[in-house]
Design goal:
41% helix; 8-stranded mixed beta sheet; homodimer; 13 strands
């Protein structure tokens, strides 16, 4: 096949007829396929089924003698902190373990800053109109936190090596209202981008007009590699400290996509000043997180090496699904000049770019044919993709056969929408 | 013995010498007794030891088919909601299950109101200086939330049937800055007071200058009875609805002092409008709480009746400790005219009132003799007991012999401080 745009009018009409026939055939199948959210599959959850029974009825004492059943332990059990220290790249003393959700830790960190500021703030962030930098496409739930709390979002492009740094540096240096920036620095949601060492260095070192500017460093996919050869991510806390901005980054992570998505353990890591601040606030919010679940995780994974090794089993389940997506995209869209997509080395998503102005139509067509995709625009602040071209494909949850079936539909939808856009 | 104040100067001097001799003997023992916090004892935690192993590796499906391991389930599993519906006195549809900490649900409810207001608010509570009514003595962590977030606290006295309602009604009707009131309506911390039906009715029906006034109804001790004959608490949600103030009360509870203090399940219940508001905000904060721990609790308790029946075992462990405290107080302080104390039917505390101006000195003396008590003043807003007389005794955690040993010390300290106050 040649590029769609180069086909003769007659050939385009023939192709359209053929695609419409295939599309109608999909519709007739009454498919019900859901490719919307980055949830682990039942098979992935099974990998950790022994987590549920990792503790005996008599096993509740942590290494420091803490009774994990009782109150207390605001920042986590020592052995759980040790695992997150390696995952997040900080000394254990600079780790705070939370409940089951790193999203909640990010949300609450933003809320505390709105009400009280952070170390270095002149006043609570909520006293004035503030802004966050949002590399896009990005994670919809990050953007939802900003939108919900009235934080203005500034879209910055995401290149192959991370955010468009010239633009980030220009904005952050010039506007003191910019207090934060969302970053998914490894296998970014949805593009799979890993920030280069140079991008990390520049983020750590750049001049900020606001003395209390913060990087919200959501290292959600720290150990979520699909291949033996993994993307390397520079340590942002070290980079910030070396650049003389030790309090700039707050790093978040969890075991949600390692053990159980809804019953894992989350943590954050940062500078001593930020950690002291987090503890001061969280001591008011809670007596402490669930330490039994921490102990359960420690017994199951044993240590960080055990956790990393566990991720290889996830990769074996996920890799065929990711490769099915990119293989079908290459097969059906490879020479058409109407789409581009990522081939990530890890994470949970494939990012598909259509021709400008086609993404919503593709999602609509797929939905009518029984394939639910993440809403077009969801990967941009306010749900508005300025070019209406990005679609997030989440292949993790459905069985492989369903992923293939869904992608067969999606490519037909992409071609149909493209032909209509080009004018058949 | 007769009242201390009626003793002759000579008798008082003799008694003081005798008490000082006993006090020095205690000091010489090198005691290390901690009566500070309302934590369950190891024996109480053992009662739920099978909770840890209540789930098999294959047990993760809720009654509605939800995989409790995966993401989702913002308001809780149906069977967990059913248990809290009975505990908190609301239809299951008006229950939101949270993580392990009801304190966190209360804190976050206050924070959401500060940033966004509640149904009926003209603006976010944080836009202006606001105030909460704080019946005192009360729970220090409630007061800490207010102090931390700059909410002014108005102290109102606590009578045998609940807060001084004439004063509450006068304040709430006259000051629109009063937006909230902390209530521990059953076996109140620390006095053991249960609000009468008439007090609940008046709280529900009273005129409020602020249209968005809220009762933060911390029913922490809903099923925490020491005796077969229990205090009855009227349903505040029903009372509010009947009084035409359906959105006035938000009820909180947890299994913290039922299963594991640090690894239980918390929930809130309120009107449909408040529940919709809570869900709207918490959908931004988290993908959902730990449903595996909910399922674990459901399997262990089976249903609400199972949970209530479990509490009888707690009562058997706690009752002797509470009775030891009040028995030693009666033995040593009964006729002295220098102290009054509560004899609660449930909850976690005995409240001791000394002569005015003696509480800090008693706590200091006890500390020197190796008995740690909750800091004097802790049961009042800003840590300031205006009469310096209230001491919270927490007998749950130490073994019975230690409770007795500690109380032997405390009564000597009370008598010594009283004699010095009266002028020996």
């Amino acid at each position: 096949m040649t590029e769609l745009a180069k086909l003769s009018a007659a050939d385009r009409a023939t192709l359209t007829q053929e695609l419409e026939r295939r599309y109608d055939a999909f519709k007739a199948q009454g498919l019900k396929l859901d490719m919307t959210r980055g949830k682990p599959s039942a098979e992935q959850l099974e990998l950790a089924s022994k987590l549920t029974v990792a503790l005996s009825a008599e096993d509740y004492k942590a290494s420091d003698g803490t009774d994990a059943r009782n109150y207390g332990g605001l920042d986590g059990l020592p052995e759980m902190k040790a695992i997150f220290a390696e995952m997040l790249g900080a000394p254990a003393a600079q780790v705070v373990v939370g409940g089951a959700s790193s999203l909640q830790m990010m949300h609450d960190t933003v809320v505390r800053a709105l009400l009280h500021g952070v170390p270095g703030s002149k006043e609570a962030w909520g006293k004035t109109k503030i802004k966050f930098i949002c590399p896009s496409p990005g994670y919809d739930r990050h953007f939802a936190i900003c939108e919900h709390h009235g934080i203005e979002m500034l879209v910055v492009g995401l290149n192959d090596d991370g955010p468009d740094m010239a633009e980030v540096e220009r904005l952050v240096a010039s506007d003191p209202a910019i207090r934060g920036m969302w970053c998914v620095p490894k296998y970014s949601n949805p593009t799979g981008t890993t920030y280069s060492a140079e991008v990390v260095r520049r983020l750590a070192a750049m001049k900020a007009a606001a003395p209390d500017f913060r990087l919200f460093w959501d290292n959600a996919y720290a150990v979520h590699d699909l291949y033996a050869e993994t993307d390397a991510l520079a340590n942002v806390l070290t980079a910030c400290a070396e650049a003389g901005n030790p309090d700039r980054a707050i790093v978040f992570g969890s075991t949600s996509k390692i053990s159980f998505a809804g019953a894992g353990v989350a943590a954050l890591a940062s500078s001593p000043a930020n950690i002291a601040d987090v503890k001061k606030h969280s001591a008011i919010q809670t007596i402490g997180p669930d330490k039994m679940n921490q102990l359960r995780h420690v017994r199951f994974f044993k240590d960080y090496a055990g956790l990393v090794s566990h991720m290889k089993k996830h990769a074996e389940l996920l890799r065929p699904k990711f490769e099915a997506v990119t293989e079908i995209f290459a097969r059906d869209l490879g020479d058409q000049g109407v789409a581009a997509w990522t081939k990530p080395h890890g994470g949970y998503f494939v990012s598909l770019d259509t021709l400008d102005g086609c993404a919503s139509e593709v999602v609509r067509l797929a939905d009518v044919a029984g394939v639910k995709l993440t809403a077009a625009g969801a990967t941009f602040p306010y749900g508005k993709d300025p070019r209406d071209r990005n679609i997030r494909i989440a292949p993790s949850m459905p069985p492989l056969a369903q992923v293939r079936a869904a992608m067969d539909v999606v490519t037909v939808c992409v071609l149909l929408a493209s032909l209509r856009k080009l004018g058949i």
